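Reminder to self: tokens first, then the designed residues, so the page reads top to bottom the way the pipeline ran.
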């Protein structure tokens, strides 16, 4: 287990008690989702973050990306294998990182 600690109760509080996102369940594309299903999904993502991905967080915390204002470039450390698998999952099977974009939409990769 890595050093990452999530707070699932705070996430659930923000989503369901403050933002009342549970009101969307059963409608608008969420026909098959209820509060128990949503809590189960959040619990699994929490487990995934703490158990499977936490090791890659540790390396990223110790070796953060470095911005060079002179060349306007960002150096990103090489991803550990587990993080690469995560990037593949998020990017739909591609290990290519998504482009970094400035607020005005200028590509800085």
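Designed residues (109 positions):
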């Amino acid at each position: 287990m890595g050093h990452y600690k999530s707070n699932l109760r705070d996430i659930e509080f923000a989503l369901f008690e403050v933002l009342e996102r549970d009101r969307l369940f059963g409608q608008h594309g969420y026909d098959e989702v209820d509060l128990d299903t949503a809590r189960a999904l959040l619990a699994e993502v929490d487990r995934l973050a703490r158990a499977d991905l936490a090791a890659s967080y540790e390396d990223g915390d110790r070796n953060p990306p470095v911005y060079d204002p002179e060349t306007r470039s960002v150096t990103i450390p090489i991803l550990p294998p587990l993080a690469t698998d995560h990037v593949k999952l998020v990017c739909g099977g591609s290990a290519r990182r998504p482009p970094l974009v400035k607020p005005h939409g200028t590509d800085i990769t």
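The longest strand covers residues 66-68.
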